[in-house]
Specification:
heterodimer, A: alpha+beta, Rossmann fold, OB fold (Dihydrolipoamide Acetyltransferase, E2P), 2 domains, six-stranded mixed sheet, five-stranded antiparallel sheet, 10 helices, 20 strands, 27% helix, elongated, B: mainly alpha, MetI-like fold, 12 helices, 74% helix
Chain lengths: 346, 287
């Protein structure tokens, strides 16, 4: 149970000018599962490696429970990192891999054997102790890597893209396993991912990092409902932006006046809303209803994506396939943007 | 023409060289080691040459000396090469130049190196003269015998000088292919630097080190020119002894020379067999 603080953490790699990580500050509460989210090359893995002690920061500090750990060697920090490609030691059996950390601590061999057995049960691989890593599937290797990290009961668990190498059904299984183990053991866990879906389903809180800088640190829900800026909203899949200015619950734009929640700050910016919150209306009687022409219809199986044009504004809507039935390209339809789905960025 | 025939035809020149020169030479050597040399009237094959060398104490002395040279050179070269590779895989200013200098020896022939060793380390060599000049020793001849010495120090030094970059290049390529992430995992799991080297990196580079070491051992065990140039008269290294027997005025000594060559070849074959067996076991373990 450890509270992790990152204070003005920066990293500039030798021979480069642009920081891989720029002045990142983050408070990760004890026992929480936090995601560092961002596109490839934004500094997520660099941050993890610095927390684990595998990279030295150029400036800033990392504290565990208020105490700086910068002078501590990786093996003494109590932060264990599970890499994206698992990196199980290929010449060791599964059991030897899991027991590695305890062996390095010179634990009693009988104790190691017992604990390895417990961990194999915990990750639901009870009979695979004698196999070599190459004889396991990707999902099984991921479980072994997790067991190898958890056996030493770390203070902080660092997971690098834990689900990205897995098939869709294994991702669900692994997500549940990570979540339940983390809840059970109450380990402060940080994981990095480029996949916002992965971050949303797994994390208590998400820190979005773009271009080496932290954009927003909030609950998953907040990233959908109240993104901090256009880039954040775009990262979370929103394509809908109506530019204009807000004042006293009204947003003036090229589409005319749009009613918005009163608590939205006045000023210039862009209204944004989730594509799945757009409502198709039979008539135009409701507030914030606009006429749009259908530019494209993309059937996605469980939902249908509509590309719509409202005068000079292009928006995306995701609707139930039944609602989209009978629609054709070029058709004029009424869509409603209820005030409660709208949020101003910028 | 079928693909199979085409492949056979393309392989023919290479196969001819191997079959005629290598296996041909081996067969003739083997026949002669069994005292079968119709050209000088020996037409009854027997074990006389083997009996003769196995009952000669000089053979055992030569064998032990040769083993000592090959084993010591290989072990020292391997240790130094691993150390050098560990340093060279890091990033540092001037790495390119250091890397170039490290590999420079590879291009210099053994013979040139041996002559250099002679000029520098013999009791009449540069270092002996310098030591006498600086009054560290009374006369150049007081310089410790590093060349033509009974412990083959000069020979070992020459081999180490030449083989460290050879093994080092192989090990370095191996380390670069493996990367540093496995060691990072080990460190994060609680291994110290030494433990992550001992338990993680070393087992992973071991096949590469072993293959390079076996090549070096086989070469140093069977090489003639360096022990001939830098070695003591007695005991001579096995290839030198074999050559002496071969060039003996008495043609009857040739089967003994051939028997020695066969013994060297068998030892090398055994080493390769051990290596292949080891690798197969490991590959099976990885599949």
């Amino acid at each position: 149970m450890t509270h992790v603080s990152l204070k003005n953490l920066s990293k500039i790699y030798p021979g480069t000018q642009t920081p891989a990580l720029d002045n990142l500050s983050l408070e990760i509460p004890t026992g929480e599962l936090t995601a560092l989210l961002g596109p490839s090359g934004c500094g997520k893995t660099t941050t993890m490696k610095m927390i684990a002690g595998l990279l030295e920061p150029s400036s800033g500090d990392i504290t565990f429970d208020g105490k700086s750990v910068l002078d501590e060697k990786p093996e003494d920090r109590g932060a264990v990192m599970v890499f994206q490609n698992y990196l199980l030691f290929p010449y060791m059996s599964v059991a030897e891999n899991i027991g590695f950390g305890l062996k390095m601590r010179k634990a009693d061999p009988n104790q190691i054997k017992k604990r390895v057995g417990e961990m194999l049960d915990m990750v639901k691989l009870p009979d695979l102790g004698n196999r070599k890593p190459s004889e396991l599937s990707g999902g099984q290797q991921q479980r072994v890597a997790l067991a190898r990290a958890l056996i030493i009961q770390p203070d902080v668990l660092l997971l690098d893209e834990p689900l990205s190498n897995l098939d869709a059904h294994l991702r669900l299984e692994m997500r549940d396993l990570i979540r339940s183990l983390q809840q059970e053991m109450k380990i402060t866990t940080i994981f990095v991912t480029h996949d916002q879906e992965e971050a949303v389903v797994l994390a208590d809180k998400i820190a979005l990092i773009l271009d080496g800088k932290m954009k927003q640190y909030d609950t998953p829900q907040a990233f959908y409902d109240a993104p901090i800026d256009e880039a954040t909203a775009r990262f979370f899949g929103s394509q809908n932006f109506i530019h204009g200015s807000a004042k006293d619950g009204i947003f003036e734009s090229s589409l005319g006046k749009i009613s918005i929640p009163k608590n939205i700050k006045a000023g210039q910016g862009a209204l944004t809303f989730r594509p799945e919150n757009v409502q198709i209306q039979q008539d135009g009687s409701k507030e914030n209803t606009f006429t749009a022409s259908v530019d494209n219809i993309i059937y996605l199986g469980t939902q249908t994506r509509l590309k719509l044009k409202l005068s000079d504004v292009e928006i995306d809507a995701i609707v139930n396939p039944r609602e989209a039935q009978g629609l054709s390209i070029g058709e004029q339809i009424n869509i409603c943007l209820p005030a409660e789905i709208l949020w101003k960025v910028g | 023409m079928s693909d199979r025939k085409k492949i056979a035809l393309l392989l023919l020149p290479a196969m001819l060289v191997i079959v005629v020169l290598f296996f041909g030479g081996l067969t003739i050597g083997l026949m002669r080691s069994f005292n079968y040399m119709p050209i000088i009237g020996l037409t009854e094959p027997n074990f006389q040459a083997y009996i003769s060398i196995f009952s000669d104490i000089e053979f055992y002395h030569s064998f032990l000396l040769t083993f000592h040279i090959a084993f010591t050179s290989t072990v020292i070269s391997s240790i130094l090469a691993i150390g050098a590779a560990l340093l060279l895989r890091r990033s540092f200013a001037g790495k390119f130049i250091v890397n170039f200098l490290f590999q420079l020896n590879l291009t210099i022939p053994h013979l040139v190196g041996a002559i250099g060793m002679l000029y520098l380390f013999s009791q009449s060599g540069s270092f002996a003269r310098l030591a006498a000049e600086w009054q560290l020793i009374a006369r150049p001849s007081d310089f410790p015998a590093l060349v033509f010495d009974p412990y083959a120090i000069g020979i070992i030094m020459q081999y180490v000088w030449k083989e460290v970059p050879f093994i080092g290049v192989i090990v370095l390529a191996n380390m670069q292919a493996i990367g540093e992430d496995y060691e990072s995992v080990a460190r994060s799991l609680g291994a110290s630097k030494w433990q992550s080297f001992r338990h993680v990196l070393m087992p992973m580079i071991f096949p590469g080190v072993l293959s390079a070491s076996i090549i070096v051992f086989a070469f140093t065990f069977g090489a003639y020119e360096i022990p001939a140039l830098l070695g003591a008269n007695y005991p001579a290294a096995l290839p030198v002894l074999a050559y002496q027997k071969y060039t003996n005025v008495d043609l009857a000594a040739r089967p003994e020379a051939m028997a020695m060559a066969v013994i060297i070849a068998i030892l090398c074959a055994i080493l390769i067999w051990i290596y292949v067996r080891y690798c197969r076991t490991r590959i099976r373990g990885h599949v």
